[in-house]
Amino acid sequence: MKRNFFLCLLSFFCLFPEIYALSDSIRISLLTVLPRSNEVYTVFGHTAIRITDASGKPDLVFNYGTFDSSRPGFIPNFLIGKLDYCLSVDDYESFCYHYTATHSTVIEQVLALSAAEKEKMIALLSDNMLPQHRNYRYSYFYDNCATRPRNLIEQCCDGTLIYPASHARTTFRTLVHQCTDPYSLWYTFGIDLLIGSGADSIITNTDEQFLSVKLMESLERTGVAVAGLQTPIVASSSVIIDAGSDNIPHSTGAGFSPMLAGWCLLTLCLLLLCRRFFLNKSSRYFFSALFFITGLAGCLLFLISVCSTHPCTYPNWNLFWIHPLQLIPAVGFLLKKTYPPVRWYHWSNFVLLSFLLLGWSLIPQRLNAAFIPFILCLWVISGYMSIIDAKLRK
Predict the structure, then answer these.
(1) Are 33 and 212 in contact (CB under 8 A)?
(2) CA–CA distance from 147 to each of 63, 72, 106, 144, 216 (Å)?
(3) pLDDT (tens digit, 9 = 90+) per residue, 266-305?
(4) Which residue range is the domain that position 61 belongs to?
(5) Which of 5, 211, 218, 322 is 20 to 30 A off residue 32, Cα-Cα?
(6) Domain boundary among 247, 282, 310
């Protein structure tokens, strides 16, 4: 019953924004949730807009980062870039309860807006809450929960926002690493597999604002230029929820990192090849499983790189070692006889991976160093099968 009442109240607010606009006690602020390790997406932070009124009207929080993971086809749609996020609204107490329970630090920046600008902001939010406007096509780097509030601020301000100049030349990948490395090197490993060379281009200071923390830091030094005068866009800042030591990053990838896992796998592959060479004992099921997993991952990576609408996923140089054709040797190892096409594939794979490793520093994409031992696993197996094993059979 309480929830239904709130929804009715919310509908009333969306239909009659002038009720808020006529009040002089309205305060509009930006809420920034600092990164935390609860989920993969939480390490990038979150941004929301708060509208409060000291006269007793509802204290509301507008959130552009809402998605429903239970919807049919959620994962496939996310992978190919056809996932819609939506604007949702909650009361401020529920917002605080949720982020207090998840041990999050939340910073509030009160925006220095005039009465007319506040009215414009409320009108824009009310329009975005309409059923036909609530959903939007999510884009991680260019259209997300941080860029949408920033765009609203730019639209409602009568002047021009003057963002601080960025002297550091950075890329999307570098900023992603800054978010993921403190929490899990496996997050970094997985994301580096998925995003291509487009993430290594130098970006502007406004491009950096796809991250909530970067947007918050930028707004602290942003001014509004009106008739030659420049005033700060942020009137005041304060911490409304302090997680304290709970918000300190605790890396979950330092113990068994991707690099360590790769070298362990490479050592196992070398031992099995020595076993095959000296004892003539086959490990074909293990090698088949290794190439099968790589080929299966290659199908997914090919789908994301070629068919996805996500930016910065194509071209992806990881397709030179993780690709669907790795399923060929996966099947070949299960056959009793090594047929010429399989042997030719191993030779081609060995040559291709050799060029990839030798030209590592020349590749126009920043490949994760933890990929090297995994590539070496495929390299030594294909090399053995195309050179040593072929000679032994002759």
Answers:
(1) yes
(2) 12, 27, 18, 5, 11
(3) 999 999 999 988 888 888 999 999 999 999 999 999 999 9
(4) 2-166+204-247
(5) 5
(6) 247
